[in-house]
Amino acid sequence: MDAMLRQPAVAGTFYPADPTELANQVGEMIRSAREHPVTPKAIVAPHAGYRFSGPTAGHAYRTLLRRNTEIERVVLVGPNHRMPLKGMAVASQDFWATPLGPVAIDWESVRAILDDPAVTVNDAPFAGEHGLEVHLPFLIRSLCEFKLVPILIGETPMEDVARVLKKLWGGPETLIVVSSDLSHYHDYDTARAKDLAALKAIECLQPEALRDDQACGRFSIKGLLSVARDYDLRATVLDYCNSGDRGAGKNSVVGYGSVAFEYASDAKLKDGIRTSLSGLVRKVIGSALKTGNMPNLEAGPMPPEMRAHRATFVTLTLDGKLRGCIGSTAPHRPLFEDVATNGYKAAFGDPRFPNLTHEEAGRVHVHVSILSTPRPILAESDVDLGRQLHPDRDGLILTDGKYRSLFLPQVWESIHQPEDFIAHLKRKAGLPADHWSPTLTWHRFGVESFGG
């Protein structure tokens, strides 16, 4: 049995070896975390000693509680720390032991990726390795019954990691967990700047913006971000701290962050946050009508969802007719700031309309749309493009050199047929309705919309 069982390497050092103490500690870290309105398909969570990173990890694992009976398989990936590794490694054992009991390895899933040239069975890098092991008590306390697919990811191209993750992606029964800390051994202020930049890159699904010194699990994270773009996921940073915040001194710290990834089509802010954002637009408009300027935004305490980097459009309507619409096609600032700025511009910066008046401000309706990450559509003709569109669901972006235009999905309410939708979008860009060229590109996106 010993040959089939991996014994814990860091029980008693990174986390308690006593089962009761461990169960109580992990349970408390999960219970004390803030409840976030996300239902993740994937999470990123740290892997240091529980004293330092445990509370931050607890934020990610609390989000799993509403899915704890649904998840049956966990794909756990993370970096090697003990020895060099090229490519990806899986271990040969059938079970991983923990103080809370053994976790079974899903060998059916492991065998499904062994034909991939980047994956090998190699026990050596797992010896003494903590990066995956420290997540098991959190998984045991968060979920009911599950099997594990543990993969160490060394220096590996993003495309290879993404390919393996897609093979294991599955449906609602599968959770993807990426184990990673953030920057290592900088002073407090330097670390915080690096870490917040890394978390912005993750939240914006921009693997190209994640630098080598910003996350030890960068190869795993970049692979996940690639899949998240292809599969239209939305990322939300749940919590951040570094070891200096946990009493370890501030001259040389390690950063920790938790991030949840959910399908953009399922993402939904709490009603209170939606109301706050619509109210923020009205507040900005009211202030601008008094002063003539965009007011300074006070970034006081607010939930992480309000600070998440998002691309938004704000649409103003009056008596059922469009009165202004301005937005961002790519995330580059926090949600509250993007909504406030676009709301101001929709009222006072849309070149199609005069500035909103005091009288109109009391009657105008505010509608906010949060865009998912645009994904390319490869089409050979208007007819081909029309077949690929999903009416009522897809927003569409046209780009051809200096020409660019966008329709939100709400435009389907007035333009019902794909061929008309495409033709009107071309005319909006200043192109003929029958325009086609080799440089013409199309991107689709979805939205979470609210307001009124």
Description:
The chain has about 450 residues and is of the alpha+beta class. The chain has three domains: about 1-265, LigB-like (Protocatechuate 4,5-dioxygenase, Chain B, 3-Layer(aba) Sandwich); about 270-370, Glycoprotein, Type 4 Pilin (2-Layer Sandwich); about 375-450, Dna Ligase, domain 1, CATH 3.30.1490. Helices cover about 30% and strands about 25% of the residues. It has 13 helices and 20 strands. Strands 2, 3, 4, 7, 8, 9, 10, 11 and 12 form a nine-stranded mixed β-sheet that branches. A four-stranded antiparallel β-sheet has the order 14-13-15-20, covered by helices on one side. Strands 16-19-17-18 form a four-stranded antiparallel β-sheet, with helices on one face. A hairpin with a 2-residue loop joins strand 17 and strand 18 (about 405). Helix 1 (about 20-30) packs across helix 2 and helix 1 crosses helix 4 (about 135-140). The chain is globular. It starts with a strand and ends with a strand. The model has no long low-confidence stretch (mean pLDDT about 95).
Count of strand segments: 20
So what's the CATH class of the largest domain? Alpha Beta
Please, what is the average pLDDT?
A: 96
Report the end-to-end length measured between terminal Cα atoms: 63 Å
| Coarse shape | globular
How much of the sequence lies in strands comes to: 15-25%
Overall helicity: 25-40%
How many domains make up the coordinates?
3
* CATH architecture grouping of the largest domain: 3-Layer(aba) Sandwich
CATH homologous group name of the largest domain: LigB-like
The largest pleated sheet is described as: 9 strands, mixed
Radius of gyration: 24 Å
